Amino acid sequence: MNLNGKRIILGVSGSIAAYKAVILLRLLQKAGAEVKVVITPSTEQFVGSLTFSSLAGTPVFKGLWDENWSEHVDWGNWADLMVVAPATTNTLAKMAHGICDNALLAVYMAAKCPVMVAPAMDVDMFSHPRTQANLKVLEGDGRIVLDTGSGYHASGLLGKGRLLEPEEILEAVAAHFDALLPKPLAGKHVLITAGPTQEPLDPVRFLTNRSTGKMGYALAEQAAYMGATVTLVSGYTHLEEPRGVNRIVARTAEDMYQAVHAVAANQDLMIFSAAVADYTPATVADQKMKKGDGDLSIPLKRTHDILKSVGAIKREDQTLVGFALETQNEQANAEGKLKRKNLDLIVLNSLNDKGAGFGHDTNQVTIIDRNLKKTPLPLASKQEIAVGILQQAIAWMVGQESV
Ligand code: CTP
Fold first, then answer.
1. Strands (DSSP E) along 147-268, which ranges?
2. Which residue, 54, 129, 198, 372, has fewest beta-carbon neighbours within 10 Å?
3. Is residue 2 part of a domain?
4. Is 209 noted as a catalytic residue in this protein?
């Protein structure tokens, strides 16, 4: 989830659910957003403004008659999004009718940005015809009205009207910003391989490598943001399935080979970032291997080179991108792989670069195309590197279409 650089006003009205707004504030900040908080007078019955201002790092706007009373206009111009969570019956009704008798409502009336509303109230207040009518008015005004959760309320009543969980509101915020992004991969199918493979020796042991899968997962996530239908064939990792991505878990090189070939023909763009074992134990013991007195050698056999096998059958209209992780003769080795595996682009990862490669949250790569044009990308987060790689791949695809 990436809300870097987004400016959000969090409007909190007086409900027992106001404590969830504290968690939402934290989640929005963790995702990279800059957040300012405005509250209604009754919010402080539930959560003190000091809690919000300490976490936000800026004073909370709460009094229409304070020294800073005119700030509502500045705030209204500043924000990319205003999120009112929790939005009580009273606040919703006032928003729907343009009543402006507190700081939150003044900011709302001055806001030039989109406004998202997360209602929170008891079951009967929520189902009341006036509340439902007010929600319709807000929708008609172009506000994003979120659903409510269903379950037990603080009052003991059971049913609709509970504030969504902070994580669900965060999802809605991210989806709102995603929808605004350009979609250069709309209508395209993209396959990404990621993570390490595990080659079993016996039921409890396997050979693997230090890949974490972060680079491939960032590629999958960014390709989905760009509008692609994404299939992620992943070795075993601790990473969560990226939003909007179809993940297929493939533990061994053989599993990955099968999974890739099952979908390769449908893809427009394929990026192979997985660290696939080149060798696997020649036999896998049925039972746990017992130690003996002497040393042990384990015979290994070659696995399929998945990338090369796809390069051998790829169509003209398909773009194939590989990774090369090198420690010496970097450029020459990468160019050799580009040719041998019939790639369109290769992403050269030099382990000699600080902050690049396995396990880091950052990476530094050079992208080399079939014509040996080199595009270095500076050290950056794996998300930013993923965007850079995808932009190069898109430029290549556009270039090929116009040939
Ligand atoms: N790859 C693959 N299947 C394999 C091995 C590698 O699909 N069995 C892919 C990787 O995902 C990566 C690229 O091939 O995109 C480069 O892998 P690498 O192991 O560095 O290249 P090799 O040609 O195997 O060269 P070497 O081991 O000699 O460095």
1. 149-152, 158-162, 189-194, 199-202, 205-207, 229-234, 245-249
2. 129
3. no
4. yes
